[in-house]
Amino acid sequence: METFLTILLDGLQFSSYLFIVSAGLTIIFGVMKILNVAHGSFYAWGAYTAAFFIGKFSDMGMPDAMGFLIIIAAAIVVGLILGFVIEQGILKYMYHRDEVLIVLATFGLFLVLEDIILIAFGTDPYFAYQPMALLDSVELGGIIRDVYGLTLIAVAALVALGCWYLLNKTKWGTLLKAVIYDREMGISMGINVPLVYTLTFIGGAILGGLGGAYIAPTISVAPGLGTEVIVLSFAVVVVGGMGSIAGAAIGSIIIGILRALAVHELPQVELFVVFAVMAVVLVFRPEGLFAPAKPRKI
Amino acid sequence: MLEDKTSKFVLFGGVLIILAGAFAPNWIVNQFMFGFSRALAIVGLMVLWRTGLVSFGHAFYFGLGAYAVAILDIQLGVTDVFLRLLAGALVAGLAGFLLGFILRNYRDIFFAMLNTAISMVLFGIVVKTESLGSTDGFAISMSTIFGLAPETKYPLFVIITSVGVIAALLVNYYLKTTYGRLTTAIRDNEIRVEYLGFSVAHAIHLKYTISTILAGGAGALMAMSLGQVDPESMINWTVSGELVFVTILSGPGNVIAPFIGSLVFEVLRTYAFELAPQAWQLIMGATFLTIIFFLPGGIWSLLEKLGGRKNGK
User: Fold this and answer.
1) Chain B residue numbers touching A115 (CB-CB < 8 A)
2) For A105, nearest residue in chain B (alpha carbons)
């Protein structure tokens, strides 16, 4: 029972940050049809920015609770700056090009952003444990969990709820869905599609940054962060169905739980399991497990 | 098969490079070995790229080729350079042929992603398996040639260059056969190709298998040139990205392009690394973006333009 609970909580915690990152990836894909490899860098930038300032503020003697503000601020600042600059500076000029070529361009961006991190923050790892230490730990069904990890699950749920609300209950969501459904029709109905694209990309980038910023206190923030998370996010969106928030949620839960199960029961297959599932889903249901089948050529 | 300009140039250039290599300093010979090993994989990716397919997972075959060499070396003590090359190409080619039955039905990002998934499965296995060297990989003993252990790197350089020449000639010939000419035709319009009486699935399967054999051979040669294999620099998805990068850098124009592109890549990487060890990826990424934006035909199109100007065209 205790092992089961540990696996479940570990899995959900892992799913949570994967979901936050993947939600950003999948929104960008759904609206703009861009598979954004540079999304891994948004995550890494979020993590580094948060870790750096949490450390700085703590050294200055500020209260540790500031950490939570810093996390949110880091995500927004990173998303706004990187999202705006990349969309307006580069991607804007590529929309008429081949889908695959845009993927390659974002890979080039990924390489650039990874190195700017190294130049800006150096190669030494950062530890921003303060927010985590602040929240202490609780006993839950016989096992001890740190509260910070549990809040991660809550944050993911909030993000999911927020996305759902935005898409289904607001005017912006309706516009977004119109653009997803038929871009040209959207333009002819007077929707400012370039603006929708810019805002979508920034929004997605903020989510990528938030995933990194929120996980930062629980890990050692070191080079190579983005490299790992981006392929995991690919697995998530592929399993759930690309371009759907619900798909990202289901995909991240499946991947998260499976990985936690592997870590505890059979650590040798930890990575293998994730990508084997991704490959199997691509082979048998390329549109994703829970996405409605579309007449799109694969 | 050897009448056309490209074939003559490849033969002539190959002989010239082999002769020049005898007098070149060691570091240049090394650059050529790495460059030409990689170029073999790029030739295969170029064939796919012409068909409109980009694989973001060919590090799978590259890694299979490299690890075939390592495992043969450790388990059976095979050191012969030709056996190693053959094993690498065969293992990768066989895997590619089998997976090709599935992959030939995929296009665009789905093709790219399924390849990524497959390569990451192998990455996941190798990283977590102690008997496969885990994250450290293996060191590989020096290659021998017909039982003789060469004292310098030069013999291996000659073999790599020769393999490159042969592969370039064969692929150049293939691209002129009917099935080879179906590359761009498939990219332009699959349905018309089917109406003409050809099977798109078969054509793509063949191209895919060719590309995997070449990637496996490239991995084997790279493993021998480097003297070691490890998952991070042989199988991880960033390696696949690197291979695609060199393909785009080279351009799809001609089978010679991958060799020039790979050399440029090696030189670029060495100098970028020396000038700014923290920023070499930045330089590569920026180069990549520049090529995508301003030089969609890669370096080859640039050379063509320069050549055209000289001839007064």
Assistant:
1) 278-282, 285
2) B289
What are the structural domains of chain A? 2-284 (1.10.3470)
Q: Which of residues 96-135 of A touch B (CB under 8 A)?
A: 98-101, 103-105, 107-116, 118-119, 123
Helix axes A99-121, A225-240, angle to 10 degrees: 150
Residue B137 tokens read as 């990989």
Residue A97 pLDDT level (bands cut at 50, 70, 90): confident
Among B105, B123, B248, whose Cβ lies nearest the Cβ of A104? B248
Measured distance CA(B247)–CA(B261) in Å, rounded: 7
| Structure confidence at residue B154 (pLDDT) | 86
A–B: how many Cβ contacts below 8 A?
132
Distance, CA of B129 to CA of B246 (rounded, Å): 30
Residue-wise over B67-85: b if at least 16 C-beta within 10 A, else e?
bbbbbbbeeeebbbbebbb
In this prediction the pTM is 0.89
Of B152, B132, B166, B165, nearest in space to B235 by CA: B132
**Cα(A193)–Cα(A183) distance, integer angstroms:** 8
pLDDT for the residue numbered A298? 39
Instruction: For A34, name the nearest residue in chain B, comparing CA atoms only.
Output: B109
